[in-house]
Amino acid sequence: MTVYIIRRILQLIPVLLGVTVLVFLLMHLTPGNPAQLMAGENAPPEMVAQIENRLGLNDPLPVQYFDYVVGVVQGDLGTSMRYNTPVIDEVAPRFWVTIELALYATVLSIFLGLIAGIISAVRQYSVADVSIMIVALFGLSMPNFWLGLMLMQWFSINLGWFPPTGWGSPEQILLPVITLGTAGAAIIARMTRSSMLEVISQDYIRTARAKGVKERIIIYKHALKNALIPVVTVVGLQFGALLAGAVLTEEVFAINGMGRLLVDSIMNRDFPVVQACILIISVVFVVVNLLVDISYKFLNKRIDLND
User: Fold this and answer.
1) Which residue windows are transmembrane per the record (predicted)?
2) 5-9, 34-38, 289-293: lowest mean pLDDT where?
């Protein structure tokens, strides 16, 4: 296990380097001058040139990238071009808001998805099964920004049950979490149903039933544990998707998270903040998938992670 974890951490290095190179090139090749944005549209060329020199924007791209990577290795993510403050001070408070939103949405997705998938598999082709799969199809089809706007219209504006914007209180958290977690719950429900149906048809399940084992024990103790491996894989991938989906959700509900900061920074050509946000999201995504791979060993002792 230790050897596997060390190997995966070492594999993380080229992945993150590739992410930094790609984002760095995309931001610098995009039309627009951040120094001009900082100085203003009517600023004299001398002021713009002074800002470019101060930010190092006149240096060759390889030099700028090398300086950025050296700073990251030393724990320095740079200085925001827009706010003129350390990037870490801008990203850190918003990062935890986004992580909190993604975690709540993941928990909701797992809870609803597992329950719906198990019921659907146990009652295959029944009215409950068909109804759950239809609802799951709608959940997959609806864009989360549209769902967020509809929930806001119904429950905040029409009924007045929940505040339409903000983050912090349980009332403010509920609608964004439902918005972000609905699609994930639909995917997990469909995957759980498929995996459960495959496991239920195995010989050892039929043997357990022939021995008179209670159906509840068969489903939750024997079948579900073996059906969870593909579901856990989906959950890991979904967490990364939720981090990306948080961008739109935060915009809809005016949540001051990292996704909203990322959009604002892209619009204002704030290179260091954009690079820091994407780098942090990439690290979180890779770490979550590492934890998912490690969990396979606990779900099925026969799996050898070193293969």
Assistant:
1) 12-30, 101-122, 134-153, 173-192, 227-248, 273-292
2) 34-38
Structure tokens at 295: 């969990």
Q: Among candidates 82, 80, 86, which has minimal Cα distance to 38?
A: 82
Distance CA 16, CA 280 (A): 10
State residue 300's pLDDT score: 61
Tokens of 170: 């349980």
Are 77 and 155 a contacting pair, CB within 8 Å?
no
- How distant, in Å, are the alpha carbons of 95, 278, 291 from that of 10? 25, 20, 15
Which pLDDT score, from 0 to 100, does residue 39 have?
67
123 Cβ contact partners less than 8 Å away, ≥ 6 residues apart: 129
String of DSSP letters for 81-123: TTT-SBHHHHHHHHHHHHHHHHHHHHHHHHHHHHHHHHHHHHT
Mean pLDDT of 271-286: 83
Angle between helices 144-151 and 224-252 (to 10 degrees): 70
Q: Which residues contact 66 (CB under 8 A, 6 or more apart)?
A: none
d(CA 13, CA 11): 5
What are the DSSP calls for 128-157, one per residue? HHHHHHHHHHHHHHS-HHHHHHHHIIIIII
Same domain for 74 and 188, yes or no, is no
Residue 246 lies in a domain: yes
- The whole-angstrom separation of Cα 273 and Cα 251 is 17
Q: Per the domain annotation, does 165 fall within a domain?
A: yes
* Residue ending a domain, choose from 17, 50, 79: 79
Q: What's the whole-model pTM score? A: 0.78
For residue 306, is pLDDT > 60? no
Q: Which domain holds residue 163?
A: 94-268
